[in-house]
Design a protein that fits this description.
Strand 2 and strand 3 form a beta hairpin. 21% of the residues lie in helices and 37% in strands. The strands form two sheets. Strands 1, 4, 5, 7, 8, 10, 12, 14, 16, 18 and 20 form an eleven-stranded mixed sheet that branches. The protein has a ten-stranded mixed sheet with strand order 3-2-6-9-11-13-15-17-19-21, with helices on one face. It is of the alpha/beta class. Helix 2 runs antiparallel to helix 6.
């Protein structure tokens, strides 16, 4: 098996070929891509010697030679399993490219605009303003890891979604990013930029799904900027195939008195990594980061969250839960940073994991870094198995063992899933939990 560091160079030919493509973009974007790719080459793929990747061995990713994913011919029927009722608009991204013929934008409210990098002309300028970071701090360089650099250097298209100040968007906006592999292992690089204006309110659902066979590497980057008083309810549902590698990066900036609520649901992938960071950059901002991950077989789910309290009077809440079967492994690293100016911070973090087999395992590491003296911060982690007393109670009342297990698992997952504001997505998520566990032996 090749060394992890050696495989970085395999992307060099891809980058050189991309230089000749129209999507390489205008001069400002070319410079940005070159800086990102230089960092990628210099930094190399992470190894277990890196503290942030200590328990996540990406050697299976390094063992493959990935090429840019092809353009498959998909129809709305192919997307049907990933759609839900009640969406106000659907934006479909296939192998990193927005496919307008598959989108459903007719119901998009006037206060919402959707632009893509590939549309050209003024739209490129509009998208580029977000990409350069003109409207937010979340796009500041340097990036957080090599896979974000890879996205920065080679992303082919980008979505810029804006909500006008004061707008209240009634129906959720659904972004569906599909990875469809081919004969060769392929990489997919979705990129989404979201700017929500002052006092605006919106619900956004991101779905990442695999269609067809083949090995794919998805490095997805989403950046969200909330102006003062904005409210965003965000759901990220990852349900890629068993042979997929998925590395997601969500970065959020909250201005004064804004509110961001996140539910991150991870149900797929051979190796799945989520990096989620939020900066409470304005006084009175409130952030909730909740998540549920479920892994079976030999898969690995790695979650790293950071909540950065930079201003005073900001509450944050975080509940992450994991359900692990087979020989699956999970990593949770949750960090709360309270800066010196962030007096009156109120931060709570909880991580719980449910191990369904003796072979499943998790490494969890909650962290608090506090540099202010008038704060309330708590964190905790718990790992266990199904409650034997509860199982006995249910069995004694005539409930079969499989049904009792399902009831207890539903109760465990419910704390996160019940917080999803879109009923259809909540029901879909519970269905996916059931389907995933139905193939897992106790």
């Amino acid at each position: 098996m090749p060394q992890v560091a050696d495989r970085v160079g395999a992307f060099a030919a891809e980058f050189e070929a991309f230089r000749r493509a129209p999507a390489f973009g205008p001069e400002w974007l070319q410079r940005r891509r070159e800086r990102a790719f230089d960092r990628f080459l210099e930094r190399g793929m992470p190894t277990t010697r890196d503290e942030e990747w200590r328990f996540t061995n990406v050697a299976p990713i390094a063992a493959e030679s990935f090429v840019r994913a092809p353009e498959p011919a998909l129809t709305r029927a192919d997307l049907a399993p990933h759609l839900f009722e009640g969406a106000g608009a659907e934006i479909v991204v296939v192998n990193g490219r927005v496919i307008r013929s598959l989108c459903s934008l007719q119901a998009l409210e006037p206060a919402v605009s959707v632009r893509t990098l590939a549309d050209g002309g003024e739209i490129v300028e509009d998208t580029g303003a977000l990409a350069r970071g003109d409207h937010g701090h979340v796009t500041a360089e340097p990036s957080s890891n090599a896979f974000v650099d890879l996205n920065d250097a080679l992303f082919e298209d980008a979505i810029a979604l804006r909500v006008a100040p004061g707008a209240v968007v009634g129906r959720p906006i659904h972004v569906i990013a599909v990875s469809a592999g081919g004969a060769r292992p392929a990489y997919v690089l979705p990129r989404i930029l979201i700017h929500v204006g002052e006092a605006a309110e919106v619900s956004i659902v991101e779905t990442y799904a695999g269609i067809g066979q083949g090995t794919t590497l998805t490095s997805a980057v989403t950046q969200v900027h909330l102006d003062a008083g904005a409210i965003v309810r965000h759901v990220r549902l990852q349900r890629e195939g068993d042979e997929a590698f998925h590395l997601g990066n969500l970065a959020v900036w909250l201005d004064r008195a804004s509110t961001f609520t996140s539910q991150a649901l991870t149900f797929g992938g051979r190796i799945a990594r989520n990096d989620i960071s939020a900066v409470l950059g304005g006084e009175g901002a409130e952030c909730t980061l909740n998540g549920l991950y479920l892994a079976t077989g030999d898969s690995l789910v790695d979650t790293h969250t950071t909540i950065d309290h930079a201003k005073p009077h900001c509450p944050s809440h975080e509940v992450y839960k994991g359900i692990l079967g087979g020989r699956a492994r999970a990593v949770f690293n949750g960090k709360i940073l309270v800066r010196p100016d962030a007096q009156k911070t109120d931060a709570k973090q909880t991580n719980r994991a449910l191990l369904l087999t003796d072979e499943a395992q998790i490494n969890t590491k909650p962290q608090l870094e506090i540099f202010a003296d008038d704060v309330k911060c708590t964190h905790g982690a718990a790992i266990g198995q199904l409650d034997e007393d509860a199982m006995f109670y249910l069995r004694a009342r005539g409930v079969s063992e499989p049904a009792a297990r399902v009831m207890l698992i539903h109760a465990f997952a419910g704390e996160v899933l019940d917080g999803i504001a879109v009923p259809a997505v909540r029901e879909l998520a519970m269905h996916l939990v059931d389907r995933k566990l139905s193939i897992e032996e106790p």
